[in-house]
């Protein structure tokens, strides 16, 4: 298999093991432990060694890893992405009886998904559960690894206009069928799957996930499809690049993945929280630096925010911009927005393009069509807590926020290469706003 095929297969394996944001953080913790990173806890005193490698999690769904230099800290080089994807979340006491014959589950929408993509396919539940044992509440990852739920669509005979544009209502159209009346309750099934007694189950954060596995396809296997490519594709690729990075004198290499991007990032563990700032401040302090040292380091830092981008759609090419038209397998995409939905400016975009060139990777440009609003992402939200020059990038994909998304096989390997380059050389702003490109 070609190198990019192996990379794509490894990505799909990671995604299949990561049906929720909690699994993303846990699986990344395992990868980091195997690579020699030690876990820190926010409630402990941090004593860090120069040259050391550490990681810390917050809320069970966000994670920051740091690889420290041996020298005095002169700046941070940061990759940021997100661990969450749009999904349907099961409500507490969410079972609804239908005519005394069926039981369906009441769900809420998490993030903005393409609702129709969740219909007529096997679904299941994943996330975390809380159990009460001997006066303690403990959290545990949960994944029912079997086909458990399905949201059936309505027959065309009962809705003749279904192909003329259907409007979906989460309360009415998106409630998954769970059981026949009188069968096991939801808490019984959860307890059974987790190997617990039902009375031990004290709480849960459970999301529906698509059971369909990832696929590599096309005449010459150029495409890959999977649930949750946004943003696990960038999160995984930037982690791989981070682990391949060789470091650079004086630079703290920082890998972050944040939860709750799909709902605005304004949570304790989101990109809008103090998580990144707290970690960076504590790193400088633990290495003997002052507040002044921290602020000086921030001023000489660089952040790449990596969140998937829209590729030109084969059937809807007119929805893309006239002049910036990224295609799958055309390389990472630099995102620009005049109204600052993206943080990229002329300088940070040029730094990223230079990194791509040095890594031997092509790159592309994205602007929203000027008469369309488009989405937003992490960069400008984290910049409000840690004011570091940043560039918003992503891999081109199709069907963003569908339960089954599509991207290019080659692009993942390219993004790994770019991040490996970023984490091996200094990207350092100077006092007059210029950048030294020493790579
Ligand atoms: Co995203």
Low-confidence stretches: none
Bound chemical compounds: cobalt (II) ion
- Round the Cα radius of gyration to an integer and report it: 22 Å
- Specify the number of helices: 10
Please tell me what the overall shape is.
globular
Protein name: M18 family aminopeptidase
EC number: 3.4.11.-
Cofactor: Zn(2+)
Keywords: Aminopeptidase, Hydrolase, Metal-binding, Metalloprotease, Protease, Zinc
Give structural notes:
The chain is α/β, with parallel strands linked by helices. The protein has helices at 3-16, 21-34, 170-173, 186-194, 229-244, 275-286, 291-299, 346-359, 379-382, 409-422; strands spanning 38-39, 53-58, 62-67, 75-82, 87-98, 102-110, 123-133, 136-143, 177-180, 201-210, 215-217, 223-226, 251-258, 302-306, 309-310, 333-336, 364-367, 390-394, 396-398, 405-408, 427-429, 435-437. The chain is globular, with a radius of gyration of 22 Å. It starts with a helix and ends with a strand. The mean pLDDT is 95. Bound molecules: cobalt (II) ion (CO). Cobalt (II) ion binds at residues 82, 230-231, 261, 307-308.
């Amino acid at each position: 298999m070609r190198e990019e095929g192996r990379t794509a297969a490894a990505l799909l394996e990671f995604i299949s093991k990561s049906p929720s944001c909690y699994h993303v953080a846990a699986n990344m913790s395992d990868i980091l432990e195997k690579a020699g990173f030690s876990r820190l806890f926010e409630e402990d005193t941090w004593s860090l060694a120069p040259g050391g490698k550490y990681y810390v999690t917050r809320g069970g769904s966000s994670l920051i890893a740091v690889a420290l230099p041996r020298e005095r800290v002169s700046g941070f080089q940061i990759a940021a992405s997100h661990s969450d994807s749009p999904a349907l979340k099961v409500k507490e006491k969410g079972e609804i009886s239908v005519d005394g014959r069926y039981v369906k589950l009441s769900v809420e929408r998490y993030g903005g998904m393409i609702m129709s993509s969740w219909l007529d396919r096997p679904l299941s539940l994943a996330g975390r559960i809380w159990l009460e044992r001997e006066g303690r509440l403990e959290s545990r990852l949960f994944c029912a690894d079997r086909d458990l739920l399905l949201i059936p669509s309505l027959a065309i005979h009962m809705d003749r206009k279904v192909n003329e544009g259907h409007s979906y209502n989460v309360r009415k159209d998106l409630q998954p069928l769970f059981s026949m009346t009188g069968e096991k309750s939801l808490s019984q099934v959860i307890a059974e799957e987790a190997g617990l007694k039902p009375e031990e189950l004290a709480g849960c954060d459970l999301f529906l996930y698509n059971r369909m596995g990832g696929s590599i396809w096309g005449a010459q296997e150029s495409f890959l499809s999977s649930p949750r490519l946004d943003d696990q594709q960038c999160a995984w690729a930037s982690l791989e690049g981070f682990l391949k990075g060789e470091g650079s004198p004086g630079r703290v290499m920082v890998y972050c993945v944040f939860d709750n991007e799909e709902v605005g990032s304004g949570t304790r563990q989101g990109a809008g929280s103090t998580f990144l700032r707290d970690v960076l401040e504590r790193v400088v302090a633990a290495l003997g630096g002052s507040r002044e040292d921290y602020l000086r380091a921030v001023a000489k830092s660089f952040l790449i925010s990596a969140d998937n981008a829209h590729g030109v759609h084969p059937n809807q090419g007119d929805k893309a911009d006239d002049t910036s038209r990224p295609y799958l397998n055309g390389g990472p995409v630099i995102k620009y927005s005049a109204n600052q939905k993206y943080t990229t400016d002329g300088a940070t975009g040029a730094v990223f393009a230079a990194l791509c060139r040095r890594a031997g990777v092509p790159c592309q440009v994205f602007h929203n069509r000027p008469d369309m609003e488009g989405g937003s992402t992490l960069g400008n939200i984290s910049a409000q807590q840690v004011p570091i020059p940043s560039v918003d990038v992503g891999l081109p994909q199709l069907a963003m926020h569908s339960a089954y998304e599509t991207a290019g096989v080659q692009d993942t390997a390219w993004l790994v290469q770019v991040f490996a380059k970023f984490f091996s050389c200094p990207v350092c702003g100077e006092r007059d706003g210029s950048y030294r490109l020493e790579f």
